Amino acid sequence: MTDSSLNAAPTPPPDQDVSHLSKVKHIVLVLSGKGGVGKSTVTTELALSLVQMGKRVGVLDVDLTGPSIPKFFGLQDHKVHQASTGWVPVYTNESKSLAVMSLGFLLQNKDDAVIWRGPKKTAMIKQFLEDVAWGELDYLLIDTPPGTSDEHLSVVENLREYKPDGAVIVTTPQAVALADVRKELNFCRKVKLPILGVVENMSGFICPHCQDCSDIFSKGGGEAMATEFGVDFLGRVPIDPNLSTLIEKEGGTFSTRFAESGIAPMFRDITSAVISKCGDSA
Ligand SMILES: Nc1ncnc2c1ncn2[C@@H]1O[C@H](COP(=O)(O)OP(=O)(O)OP(=O)(O)O)[C@@H](O)[C@H]1O
Ligand code: SF4
């Protein structure tokens, strides 16, 4: 992508003396070893559950090559604005307690591809971490690209002084996803990022007719891996065949759409577990 396909990114003021992140109580990264396992879905559901528990939440999408968070929140046509304090994130319609920032808001065309070399990505991530005027937040959830790339390293390095609470690792039960997630767990250990726990997504299938949950693929791999690594297992989330339809559905708010999904109830427990791992209470 060329710079011209970005909307004129507002330049935050250079004299900002207090870091925006110093007003954030808890920082949680959402990681996965492999693409398409449901990292953005987990980030969105966690954000929603946290807001329902009365928390002020920010969601930062640093997946520069495939920013899907705007779509998940139904905010595709939104743009970020500049204030004297920095970039103003996009607030979801219904509640000012949920703010979202993504490269997707800076693209002129949502189908534009971002093809940047490492240093440019690193610079953009640094700016995203430092210059978004979140205000007071209880939780900042950071949705990362799949794998363990330059982006991950730059997120971790730039966050070091703010002591992130840790990472939620998302996997599916299949061995191929698990092999990649092993690398992700080892990455966290190497960079000394605490692991809050593992979520096994797409574990079983909710029947659209009877709402029963059947195990069409293997299940339990995420939990076994968590045990092997001595980290917490946060919970299992089945495939809900209605989820994509709900995300694409016009009208309503994103929270009512996600609340209708069969996986929303599982996230109450997962979110409570994350909160407690962060030393917070619901
Ligand atoms: N539990 C689930 N039930 C049904 N569909 C799901 C579930 N989890 C994820 N999906 C769907 O799978 C697709 C991939 O999910 P998502 O975008 O969250 O993955 P991801 O790991 O963030 O992908 P990437 O980082 O590669 O963009 C999406 O269309 C999403 O709606
Ligand atoms: S679980 Fe299978 S058999 Fe039972 S209602 Fe659903 S589709 Fe039909």
Offer a few descriptive terms.
alpha/beta; single chain; Rossmann fold; 282 residues; globular; two-stranded antiparallel ribbon; binds iron/sulfur cluster
Q: What does the model show?
A:
It is found in: Cytoplasm, Cytoskeleton, Cilium axoneme; Cytoplasm, Cytoskeleton, Microtubule organizing center, Centrosome, Centriole. The chain is an alpha/beta fold and about 280 residues long. Helix content is about 35%, strand content about 25%. The protein contains nine helices and eleven strands. Strands 1, 2, 5, 6, 7, 8, 9, 10 and 11 form a nine-stranded mixed beta sheet that branches. The chain has a two-stranded antiparallel sheet with strand order 3-4. Helix 1 (about 40-50) crosses helix 9. Residues about 1-5 have low confidence and may be disordered. Adenosine-5'-triphosphate binds near residues 39, 201 and 263. The site of adenosine-5'-triphosphate (ATP) has 21 residues, from helix 1, strand 9, strand 11 and helix 7.
